[in-house]
């Protein structure tokens, strides 16, 4: 497969998997409701995405870097709302 096709495939996958978080972030920010979201899952997920981001930088795979940087920002915003909600409920 041509290098440009590999790059296009990577960016398309990155757009779809990263874009999948947008509706959840929008809902959480709009309603401030994170009760049904697992704190443990989002904590582990954000850690994993951060590691993928570091990996992407180290191997210079820019679709991996771009997707994981954006996904980390989106998922971290949900995690922040979840932690804030949990502190408020105490």
UniProtKB/TrEMBL annotation:
The chain crosses the membrane at residues 6-29, 36-55, 61-81. Coiled coil: none annotated. The keyword Zinc does not apply. InterPro entries: PQ-loop_rpt (IPR006603), SemiSWEET (IPR047662). It is a multi-pass membrane protein. Gene3D superfamilies: 1.20.1280.290. Keywords: Membrane, Transmembrane, Transmembrane helix. It is found in: Membrane. NCBIfam families: SemiSWEET_2. This is SemiSWEET transporter.
